[in-house]
């Protein structure tokens, strides 16, 4: 079972001059300031930053580094990638991984890191991070306040698409065909609308339910419409080693095969929960905005690529 | 204690019981020497009987803990004793339990859940020390429903922010095999079925490692895999005597449960082994089936790295071949050429010996599912503010005759 990743902690201690245990530090800080214990400010202007000392990595070297070293680092890079995007430089995480155990780079271990000009090597090529896969929204849950007391028995009697079983649940369950959604309508006038595939569809569906309630004779209004939860899903098209992922990202992941076949990844920024399965399918939930789902997927995709092979 | 008859200082026999402030003293009336003093006691009754009060009783520590907490702690300690865990685990589990019970989300849950909470604390402690304890074991000890245990465990992990490392399969193999009864001679076990424990553990570990490499373990319940691997290892250690024994009979003799998924895991393991056997030079002449391959498991496990590479088309090898094809000058060595031969194309899967991609079973046999169509252009043009026609709404309302009919039928 000795995955490559289980040996990565040992790879760090003797070799790396960088301080790995500072999760709040960004890549630049880790590379330049770890030996000087400087404050954790991120330099927003990258024009002065000299990255030419970083080794140019070949294809296999890059993949090996990704699986050995890059995973620890990607944890720290996750939070900072969105900041990089602002300045327009996309730094490929794989090329910023730590030097391989077999090739110590003496110039980096020197103490005067940012001051002495390094032997010029091929500079890091900024690459686009986009994975090319767009998660598809599967379900939107929204709430709205109709602002009037409702007689649920009356509604269930006079509407065709309503079901009401007070012993089981204290709300009317109403369904419409277009957009295909379900609503829970409570006696207080609050309503939950589920099943829509987009925010606009959810809003349209909620308005239709409000119109039905209006036509049934209640003075329904349409107040405080809010999207409460969005669920998306996609497929990364390769199998994933969940055991390796939970070892590398222990504080974010929960993988209990006895309970559930997928790995539950709680991303901090944005606050999204991802269900990652061995087949490569990913479910993202907990978003209030569509962009959170896209951002979460762009954050997880490089991590998953690191666990593509055994 | 018996009071001395004479004073050690002056020898006089005039001893008087006197009280200095509130302390009783035995004093010599002649010289004033104090022979004995009252002890410091904590309860009036003990003072009257001149008995010492034990420290543990006098500190009042027990009174500070609520009865529920005391009972829970005792339960946790009992669980640790039953599982024969080291003393350190007991302390850790008890401390987790105390922390959890003080947490607002667990303070007022039902007694059933509080007992499960104790079990969860023991479980978390074991996992943190890499002690291979499965949830199934704890649930059976507590007579708990697995779903309830799962929910309590997940909320405990979240509230106390515990990091629980993953279950180590290697340790689980050793622990699970410990409960098998096949390592000693017994009345109901035929002689050829008894096996040496060390050999069985080693071979089962190798099988489980093989299963893990070929994607049979990820996402699946671990115990059925270990059981299936143990069965195959046991059979392969003495094939002539044991090939006729069925899986169910094996589990009954060993005294373990046969979990339902274990049959499927057995089938999957055999399929992997058959594919590997097709790549072993001296086995290629034989027509292997799932009975005969068991005899050669020893060889297959010994050369498993080489066989896996050849039997299964790995995706990265596809990429490397594509790269190699791109630059014909630097053609890879014999390895690449051999790959060309063994890995003709992913499309050819009918031929028995041709390698298949090394993928999890869920990707190789995907269940046909109705895929909802991607949102069409008309769907994406919805703004949410479109006008809603009356006729569309009216289709959802009942007419007056309908309402009358329903009223009569349902007697609202």
Features:
heterodimer, A: alpha+beta, TATA-Binding Protein, ten-stranded antiparallel sheet, 10 strands, elongated, disordered N terminus, B: 412 residues, mainly alpha, N-terminal domain of TfIIb, Cyclin A, domain 1, three-stranded antiparallel sheet, 23 helices, 5 strands, DNA-binding (chain A)
Summarize the structure.
The complex is a heterodimer of chains A (310) and B (412). Chain A has 310 residues and is of the alpha+beta class.
Describe the model:
The complex is a heterodimer of chains A (310) and B (412). The radius of gyration of chain A is 26 Å and the shape is elongated. In chain A, helix 3 runs antiparallel to helix 8 (290-305). Chain A is an alpha+beta fold and 310 residues long. The longest helix of chain A has 29 residues, at 59-87. Helix content of chain A is 31%, strand content 21%. In chain A, strands 2-3-4-5-1-6-10-9-8-7 form a ten-stranded antiparallel beta sheet, covered by helices on one side. Chain B folds into three domains: 1-42, N-terminal domain of TfIIb (Single Sheet); 67-165, Orthogonal Bundle (Cyclin A, domain 1); 170-320, no CATH class. Chain B is flat. Helices cover 53% and strands 5% of the residues of chain B. The longest helix of chain B has 18 residues, at 111-128. In chain B, helix 4 (67-82) runs antiparallel to helix 5 (87-102). By secondary structure, chain B is mainly alpha-helical. Chains A and B meet through helix 5, helix 6 and helix 7 of A and helix 9, helix 11, helix 18, helix 22 and helix 23 of B. Chain B: Keywords: Activator, Metal-binding, Nucleus, Repeat, Transcription, Transcription regulation, Zinc, Zinc-finger. Chain B: Residues 3-36 form the TFIIB-type domain.
List the helices and strands and how they pair.
The complex is a heterodimer of chains A (310) and B (412).
Chain A: H1 8-15, H2 27-33, H3 59-87, H4 106-109, E1 136-145, H5 152-158, E2 162-164, E3 171-176, E4 181-186, E5 190-196, H6 199-215, E6 223-235, H7 242-248, E7 253-254, E8 263-267, E9 272-276, E10 281-287, H8 290-305
Helix pairs in contact in A: 3-8
Chain B: E1 15-20, E2 23-28, E3 34-37, H1 44-48, H2 55-58, H3 61-64, H4 67-82, H5 87-102, H6 104-107, H7 111-128, H8 135-142, H9 146-159, H10 169-178, H11 197-213, H12 222-237, H13 239-242, H14 247-254, H15 261-277, H16 297-302, H17 304-311, E4 312-313, H18 315-326, H19 334-342, E5 356-357, H20 361-364, H21 377-380, H22 390-394, H23 400-410
Parallel strand pairs in B: 4-5
Antiparallel strand pairs in B: 1-2, 2-3
Helix pairs in contact in B: 4-5, 4-7, 5-7, 7-8, 7-9, 10-11, 10-12, 11-12, 12-15
InterPro entries (chain B): BRF2-like_C (IPR054078), Cyclin-like_sf (IPR036915), TFIIB (IPR000812), Znf_TFIIB (IPR013137)
GO molecular function, one term (chain B): zinc ion binding
Domain TFIIB-type (chain B): 3-36
């Amino acid at each position: 079972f000795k995955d490559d990743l289980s040996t990565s902690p040992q790879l760090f201690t003797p070799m790396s001059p960088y301080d790995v245990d500072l999760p709040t530090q960004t890549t630049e800080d880790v590379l330049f300031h770890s030996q000087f214990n400087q404050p954790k400010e991120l330099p927003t202007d990258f024009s002065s930053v000299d990255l030419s000392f970083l080794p140019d990595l070949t294809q296999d070297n890059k993949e090996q580094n990704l699986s050995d070293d890059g995973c620890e680092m990607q944890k720290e890079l996750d939070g900072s990638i969105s900041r990089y995007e602002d300045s327009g430089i996309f730094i490929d995480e794989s090329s910023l991984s730590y030097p391989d155990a077999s090739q110590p780079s003496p110039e980096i271990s020197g103490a005067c890191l940012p001051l002495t000009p390094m032997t010029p090597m091929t500079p890091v090529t900024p690459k686009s991070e986009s994975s090319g896969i767009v998660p598809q929204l599967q379900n939107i849950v929204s709430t709205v306040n109709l602002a009037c007391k409702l007689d649920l028995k009356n509604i269930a009697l006079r509407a065709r698409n309503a079901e009401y079983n007070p012993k089981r649940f204290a709300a009317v369950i109403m369904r419409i065909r277009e957009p295909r959604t379900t609503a829970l309508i409570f006696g207080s006038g609050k309503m939950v609308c589920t099943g829509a595939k987009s925010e606009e569809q959810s809003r349209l569906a909620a308005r239709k339910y409000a119109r039905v309630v209006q036509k049934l004779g209640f003075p329904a209004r349409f107040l405080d419409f809010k999207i409460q939860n969005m669920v998306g899903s996609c497929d990364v098209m390769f199998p994933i080693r969940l055991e390796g992922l939970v070892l590398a990202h222990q504080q974010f992941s929960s993988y209990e095969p006895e309970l559930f076949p997928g790995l539950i990844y709680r991303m901090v920024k944005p606050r999204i929960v991802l269900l990652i399965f061995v087949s490569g399918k990913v479910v993202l939930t907990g978003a209030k905005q569509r962009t959170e789902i896209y951002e979460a997927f762009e954050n997880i995709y490089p991590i998953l690529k690191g666990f593509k092979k055994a | 204690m018996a009071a001395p008859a004479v004073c050690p200082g002056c020898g006089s026999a005039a001893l008087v019981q006197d009280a200095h402030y509130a302390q009783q003293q035995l004093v010599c009336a002649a010289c004033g020497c104090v022979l004995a003093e009252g002890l410091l006691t904590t309860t009036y009754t003990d003072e009257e009987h001149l008995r010492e009060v034990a420290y543990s009783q006098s500190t009042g520590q027990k009174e500070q803990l609520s009865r529920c907490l005391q009972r829970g702690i005792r339960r946790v300690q009992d669980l640790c004793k039953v599982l024969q865990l080291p003393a350190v685990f007991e302390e850790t589990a008890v401390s987790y339990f105390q922390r959890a019970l003080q947490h607002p989300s667990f303070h007022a849950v039902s007694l059933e859940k509080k007992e499960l909470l104790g079990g969860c604390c023991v479980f978390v402690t074991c996992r943190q020390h890499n002690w291979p304890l499965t949830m199934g074991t704890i649930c059976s000890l507590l007579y708990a429903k697995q779903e309830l245990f799962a929910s309590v465990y997940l909320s405990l992990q979240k509230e106390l922010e515990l990091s629980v490392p993953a279950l180590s399969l290697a340790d689980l193999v050793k622990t699970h095999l410990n409960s098998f009864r096949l390592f000693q001679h017994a009345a109901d076990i035929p002689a050829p079925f008894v096996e040496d424990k060390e050999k069985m553990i080693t071979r089962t570990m190798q099988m489980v490692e093989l299963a893990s490499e070929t994607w049979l373990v990820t996402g699946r319940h671990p115990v059925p895999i270990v059981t299936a691997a143990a069965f195959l290892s046991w059979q392969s250690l003495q094939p002539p005597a044991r090939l006729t024994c069925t899986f169910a009979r094996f589990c009954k003799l060993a005294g373990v449960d046969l979990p339902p998924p274990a049959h499927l895991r057995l089938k999957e393991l055999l399929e992997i082994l058959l594919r590997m056997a097709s790549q072993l030079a001296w086995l290629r002449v034989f027509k292997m089936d799932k009975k005969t391959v068991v005899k050669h498991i020893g060889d297959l496990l010994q050369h498993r790295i080489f066989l896996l590479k050849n039997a299964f088309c790995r995706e990265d090898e596809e990429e490397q071949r594509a790269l190699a094809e791109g630059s014909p000058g630097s053609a890879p060595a014999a390895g690449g050429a051999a790959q060309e031969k063994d890995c003709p194309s992913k499309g050819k899967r009918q031929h028995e010996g041709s390698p298949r991609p090394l993928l999890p079973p869920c990707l190789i046999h995907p269940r046909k599912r109705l895929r909802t169509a991607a949102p069409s252009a008309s769907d994406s043009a919805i703004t949410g503010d479109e006008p809603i026609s009356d006729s569309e709404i009216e289709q959802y309302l009942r007419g007056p005759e309908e309402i009358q009919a329903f009223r009569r039928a349902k007697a609202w």
